[in-house]
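Subject: Predicted fold for Radial spoke head 1 homolog, 233 residues

User T.R. writes:
Posting the sequence so we have a shared reference for the thread.
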Amino acid sequence: LDSVRPSPLTRSLPAFEQEYEGDRNAEGERHGYGKARLPNGDTYEGEYERGLRSGRGTYRFKSGALYTGSYLQNKKHGKGIFFYPDGSKYSGDWVDDQRQGHGEYTYANGDTYTGEWFNNKRHGQGIYVYKDSGSKYVGRWVNGIQEGPAEIIHLNHRFLGRFFKGKPLGRGKYVFDFGCEQHGEYIQLEQEKGEEEEEEVPLPVEPVQPTWKAIEITELTPWTPQDEKPPSP
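User M.O. replies:
I've generated the structure tokens; pasting them so everyone works from the same file.
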């Protein structure tokens, strides 16, 4: 009978601890390399330090997502790759479980963003490539939105100017491959507002797209959009 009884160590462990195989330290904590199944069905295989995921490891989510990379005290921290259930993927820096630093995100539709991240959002300098058209946005981002000096590169021409809340606004120019450029500005047109009836909830207004106002056509000239300040919206 003694041969089939669980050891004293096994009997003393909580149920969730019995879902772990691997190294432990003198205090019985997960320490070193091991495999674990979490109560929610996720699994982890990799390095531990004093009971916490720390070091290199691979975490498989029950949803089908997968992360492989560095951990620090149970949080993604350092270099790592995250495969999302929709087929998208992020490869780059992590800080305190957030995409932060430099990294590349490949979206489910094939678009890619390569650049700076902060608090899980595109933030700083980065390049976004649209797969279907091949166009590129090269410029600044603020909290996931295009904002600041930027350049949009198309097949046979490009636009240089500034963006505000994801849309071009203010002075800029289009540069064409055949050797000339068109200067102008994007302006936000005012939209006439209708009257509201009592006790009626107004429908949301569709955002007005900025309108390009051409000023002149010239030969190729230098351009420094950093010196320009976007006008008030």
